[in-house]
Write a structure and sequence with these properties.
The chain has 3 domains: 226 residues, 2-Layer Sandwich (Heat Shock Protein 90), CATH 3.30.565.10; 142 residues, Ribosomal Protein S5, domain 2; 227 residues, Four Helix Bundle (Hemerythrin (Met), subunit A). It is elongated, with a radius of gyration of 37 Å. It contains 23 helices and 22 strands. It is an alpha+beta fold. Helix 11 packs across helix 12 and helix 22 packs across helix 23. The N terminus is likely disordered. It is 38% helix and 19% strand. It has a 9-stranded mixed sheet with strand order 1-6-5-4-7-3-2-8-9. Strands 10-11-14-12-13 form a 5-stranded mixed sheet, with helices on both faces.
């Protein structure tokens, strides 16, 4: 080679280098740092993004081949292939999709150099970026640099002869050049992204780790995702994903067995779904919904975090199962929602304020409640099994979701003092008796305890139905619900209740026939003085019929059930209750007889009245030892 020829070759090489090297017009290092901390929660999502890009390329080719069948004629089976080279420390993700031209590689893989990137970075740094912009800046592809210190992209556009190679270390720029012939021959069509992994990312070369990530994030990508790994010197190929997005198929092609198998997979449960909800929403936002209402309680139903388990997909790519896509009181629902509108690289953190998620949440919540409500008409026994399993959770919506409270009231079922069957509020209101103006309720730990409660006696004697509430959530929603059909909710254990306007079933027109102690004011006063440290007040009861005494909350204080719940949960002493006594009961009359002559027996009997009232509301005597002593003295006195 002559000196002149050598000089000309050198100049040509320099011109070629200049033509193939590009400088990022943005602070790439800063962008990558912000992306890691602000956009992505976990590094492993890089594989999800690369697979998503590959699936997207396959989708585009499949669509274009409708009018140009020759584009896929030589290789009609679209797929994504992951290849591991442990010796070289590389991980490749290849697809045989639409591929890219040189110009498209510069545009698509260098999108962070577009106009507006600086503004995007500034907004991202402030934490107030519009998540809808993320997909416009190629952030998804650049997630590869979280695990790789060098990335190469080899691509051949479908139907083209030229193969181009894009490469970058993510620091200052990228290079695009024509691929060497030997390398070009390895790629008939599509794209291969090769990651030279960092030392702390070599776990992603392990077969089990790759399989876990693909199963978690991309199991239902509709194209096969194959893994090529070398075993005993020979390459081995196997498919990692199911490659069948059931929810995208027409309902007419899916039978109950398909739904049941998918439910077991997506929910991790092994019962039979009570309700299957499958539909596609079109209009302002497009998304597909495939949800299931289980027939039995999941083990984590009452986990304090109250997180839902609905998976969010974007264009068949898994995003998260923690998107809060439905309110917490529907956390028992399982399944997925697949959006066509959201950016694929949206983070879990940004989902909380995403307007598309908010719109989907509202529509899907309404649909779930509607489907549950329909079940009350089409299959009442199945609905009741759902209510028995999840009614305690659905009732959380009565104080959390004011907008849908009326819908939830129509679904809600209650045990009452009227019998053993479940009752609706509509039935309750329709059966309200003469002069009854409120919906009465009683809260306790069990139905057995509530049915034996002395507070029920006056209402039962008048034929007044009472809601018997045994769920912890009942203590809360009754305090925020204003009422139903104009009838307020009223506790049996809160304040003073005058039932004089509601006649007794067996003694209509015979008011005042029961004999009461002549010195009732004196007895009440003496009881109040004696028990001053244990009760807030002592008064005559209008609600007792057969029992001598009961405890209620003072007027203006929380319901007695709420007081006891706070005492158990928070360890705080409940407020002093009011002791109501039945002046017509023989035990109270006995107080009148011994009030002047047997002070010690009066005191023992008075304290026993209070302890008995505590026992009837499910609490032990305040001082078990003294309770035992007093009881023994009275028994022995009776024997003498």
């Amino acid at each position: 080679m002559t000196k002149a020829t050598s000089q000309n070759t050198s100049k040509a090489a320099k011109r070629k280098a200049k033509d193939s090297e590009f400088t990022f017009q943005a602070e790439v290092a800063r962008l990558l740092q912000l992306m890691v901390h602000s956009v992505y929660s976990e590094k492993e999502v890089f594989l999800r993004e690369l697979i998503s890009n590959g699936a997207d390329a396959c989708d585009k080719l499949r669509y274009q081949a409708i009018t140009e069948p020759k584009l896929m004629a030589d290789d009609p089976d679209l797929r994504i292939t992951i290849e591991v080279n442990k010796k070289a420390g590389t991980l490749s993700v290849a697809d045989n999709g639409i591929g890219m031209t040189r110009t498209e590689m510069i545009d698509n893989l260098g999108t962070i150099a577009r106009s507006g990137t600086r503004a995007f970075i500034d907004r991202l740094a402030k934490g107030d970026s519009d998540v809808s912009l993320i997909g416009q800046f190629g952030v998804g592809f650049y997630s590869a640099f979280m695990v790789a210190d060098h990335v190469e992209v080899l691509s051949r556009k479908a139907g083209a002869k030229t193969v181009n190679l894009w490469s970058s270390d993510g620091a200052g720029g990228f290079d695009v050049s024509k691929a060497p012939k030997a390398l070009a021959r390895t790629l008939p069509r599509g794209t291969i992204v090769t990651l030279h992994l960092k030392d702390d990312a070599k776990d992603y070369l392990e077969e089990t780790e790759l399989e876990r990530i693909v199963r978690a994030y991309s199991d239902h990508v509709t194209f096969p995702i194959n893994l090529t790994i070398e075993r005993e010197g020979r390459p081995e190929l196997r498919q990692l994903n199911a490659a069948s997005a059931l929810w995208t198929r027409p309902k007419s092609e899916i039978d109950e067995d398909h739904y049941r198998e998918f439910y077991h997979h997506v929910a991790g449960l092994f019962d039979q779904p009570a309700i299957t909800i499958h539909y596609k929403a079109e209009g302002r936002h497009e998304y597909t919904v495939l949800l299931f209402v289980p027939s039995t309680r999941p083990f984590d139903l009452f986990d304090p975090a109250r997180k839902g388990r609905i998976k969010l997909y974007v264009k068949r790519v898994f995003i998260t199962d923690d998107a809060e896509i439905v309110p917490a009181y529907l956390r028992f629902v399982r399944g997925l929602i697949d959006s066509e509108d959201m950016p694929l690289n949206i983070s879990r953190e940004m989902l909380q304020n995403n307007p598309i998620v908010a719109s989907i949440r509202k529509a899907v919540t309404g649909r779930i409640l509607s489907e549950i409500s329909k079940l009350t008409e089409t299959d009442e026994p199945k609905f009741l099994s759902v209510w028995e399993a999840f009614g305690g959770v659905l009732k959380e919506g009565l104080y959390e979701d004011f907008e849908r409270r009326d819908e939830l009231f129509e679904i809600a079922r209650f045990r009452t003092s009227a019998g053993e069957d479940w009752r609706t509020l509509k039935q309750y209101v329709a059966d309200m008796g003469e002069n009854q103006t409120a919906i009465y309720y009683l809260i306790g730990d069990s139905l057995e305890q509530l049915r034996a409660s002395p507070q029920l006696e006056g209402y039962r004697a008048r034929g007044v139905e009472v809601l018997l509430l045994t769920e912890p959530v009942d203590n809360f929603w009754v305090t925020t619900a204003l009422g139903y059909e104009g009838k307020p909710f009223q506790s049996l254990t809160q304040g003073e209740d005058d039932l004089s306007n509601i006649p007794l079933l067996d003694e209509k027109g015979k008011k005042g026939t029961k004999k009461e102690p002549a010195a009732k004011a004196e007895i009440l006063g003496r009881l109040k003085t004696l028990l001053a440290d244990a009760v807030d007040d002592v008064r005559e009861s209008k609600r007792l019929v057969d029992s001598p005494a009961c405890l209620v909350a003072a007027s203006g204080a929380p319901d007695r059930g709420m007081e006891l719940l706070i005492e158990r949960q928070m360890g705080e002493e409940a407020r002093l209750p009011v002791l109501e006594v039945n002046l017509s009961h023989p035990l109270v009359k006995a107080l009148d007889e011994i009030s002047g002559s047997k002070a010690e027996e009066f005191d023992d009997l008075a304290w026993l009245l209070l302890d008995e009232a505590r026992i009837l509301e499910g609490r032990p005597p305040a001082d078990p030892a003294k309770f035992s002593e007093r009881l023994n003295r009275l028994v022995l006195a009776g024997l003498d």
